[in-house]
Amino acid sequence: MWEGRGIQNALQAQRDKMGAMAKHRRTAFRNWVEYLGVVGMVATLRFTPRWMSERLGRGYAGLLDRLSPRLRRTALRNLELALPELGAEERQRIADGVFRSVARLLVGASRLPSVNQRNVREWIEYDGFEHFQEAKRRGRGVLIASGHLGNWELSGVGHALLCGETMSVVVRPLDNPLIDRLVQDRREIAGNRMIGKKDFIRSMLEVLKSNGVVGIFVDQNSHFDQGLFVNFFGVPARCGTAFAKVAKHTGATVIPGFAVWIEAERRYRLKFYPPLELTGDVTEDTQLVQSAVERAVREYPDQWLWLHRRWKARPPGAPALYD
Question: For residue 270, what is the enclosing H or E element?
Fold first, then answer.
């Protein structure tokens, strides 16, 4: 009797799961509506004077804040988990900064087709380029541990234009294929290549074998493998293991890299940090990488994407951290 009831419960759970999937399944109409909205926004940010574009970007980010209050709630909850020593007022100040950072991101991403070798330094300049050069000299390929800090859309394009060397970037395709194509065209505008999750390990190995450069966003839940839990701001966070495994297999040099906004200069700095000396142990090396990202986020806390539910995945038996 209990076996039969267990099967019935399992079947009902599967039906519920399929029903939820059907409920959230995308339609062509929805994709086109979203796409046209994004195209309109991008046009206003690209073809207006830069001062006006920046003002519009702040307006769009403010609208996002008001229309999606869950994003700010998520940011405040993340800050409560990661930086419990801060007061409520300081957490609100950082959350405000996150939306300002999103505004700058929108402007920079929209105007990427207008960025070239002549004007790239008006947008971004190197800080720590010697660390990248050292990684290249080692001759085993370069793995850049990056994340959603500052302007990640400008970082790869800026690097290719500043030094003339392209890179491959591992990305998760966006849910809307029309917007995904629009974003990918901009990401590849300076010759960089995007690597999707299909056969991404093989593609990474091919690039690194020729002493090439691969960038991976390592600061969110893994979409490419099941991952493991290591500490991020002292809270267990699920992280993909592919980065550490590829580094171990290839001997590639790992350097953290982020494009962060410097208000005094009114432009970004593409900061490369010193190479991480990995151990060859996947768990230890994954922790080393996450600790490096954490240090960068602590340095620029109002430029990280706290809007993402970073700690949604929990170790077995651990309570949920979000409502």
Answer: strand 267-272
DSSP state at residue 28: H
Other beta carbons within 10 angstroms of residue 130's beta carbon come to 10
| Inter-residue contact 115 to 226 (CB < 8 Å) | no
pLDDT tens, residue by residue, 27-43: 999 999 999 999 999 99
Report the predicted TM-score, pTM, of the whole model to 2 decimal places.
Answer: 0.89
Tokens standing for 99? Answer: 């939306």
Instruction: Give the three-class secondary structure for 319.
Output: coil
Question: At residue 223, what is the residue type?
Answer: H
Query: For residue 277, which phi and psi values (nearest 5 degrees)?
Result: -90, 95
What percent of the chain has a predicted confidence (pLDDT) above 70?
Answer: 91
Nearest-10 crossing angle of helices 88-110, 28-46: 90
> Please, which residues have CB within 8 angstroms of residue 275's CB and are 6 or more apart in sequence?
131, 134, 135, 253, 254, 255
How far is residue 315 from each of residues 31, 229, 321, 322, measured CA to CA in Å?
Answer: 35, 7, 11, 14
pLDDT of 71 strictly over 70? yes
Domain positions in the chain are 28-110, 117-303
- From CA 166, how far away is CA 178, in angstroms rounded? 25
Q: What is the mean pLDDT of the chain?
A: 91
pLDDT, residue 224, reads 52
Phi, psi dihedrals of residue 268, rounded to the nearest 5°: -95, 155
